[in-house]
Amino acid sequence: MDVEPESSTPRLSVVIPTLDGYRNGCVPRLLESVQRQTIQDVEIIMIKGVFPQGKAINQGAAQARGAVLMILDDDSELADAHVFERILHTLESDIRIGMAGASITLSPGSTPFQRRAAGQFPRFQTPVVDAITDSDLACHGCCAFPKPIFDAIGGEREDIMRGLDPDLRQRLRAAGYRVVLAPQARIYHPLPAGWKKLARMFFRNGFGSAYAQKFQPESVYETHEDLHDKTFVARRSLGYRVARFPLRLVRALITFQEMRFVAYTSYAAGYLWGWLTAKELTPHGNGPA
User: Fold this and answer.
1) Which of 27, 207, 225, 244 has its CA 20 to 30 A from that of 80?
2) Number of folded domains in the chain?
3) Is residue 142 located within the same domain as residue 208?
4) Could you read off the pLDDT of 261-278 as tens digits, one per residue?
5) How far lies 91's CA from each of 70, 75, 108, 167, in Å?
């Protein structure tokens, strides 16, 4: 990667925010999948140990020399050799596309627990599309933007812990751009491997959501579980979301979706804990004030 002379401009700049550059072996596996891509005119920018994630991504974007900026989660893996090619082709096909993402699919080595989780959480396993599809399911696991568009909307927010995906998607739409899934572009993204990790994930998400509601309520948006975004409503009132929550719990119970029930309960606990204890990030985004 990045074998061109320093003065050259790579076709694609890939930013990977990561805590330690290893992530229990996920980062080396990700980099191996990058090396197998049909497009190799790529620079890799790894940002280590920067919190929150939005700040890490913006630091990487500031270093990027490519015309297209891609973000990869450090625990993602590109499912085949054509992911970069398909995403770039999607962006180049329509100047109105501001963000093109890959579908998240189960890795071949997924456990029975992870397969059950994928069946109960649509965002854990995204349908692979055959045509460019406007969708709220495009996410930071693997997504790309024309860099001028990313810069024009102000990049990522650095003052929220969670919710980068819905915030960025909505700002792109507000600026008149499409958010899409690229045809046949797939990544693997590991699902929680057990009940404890599932509960911890949703507790953390609940905490982050409470933080955003407490300090940046304008950044709180809905996420959609359907492939197509025609019926998507980006923002709901806090009262609406509170009233909806017990209905979701009941629905999870009567449909025997025990994982969703545990996830919702953990989310609620995290939200309450965040509302009671969360402190605002410092202006530099390095931690609580």
Assistant:
1) 225
2) 2
3) no
4) 999 999 999 999 999 998
5) 11, 24, 28, 20
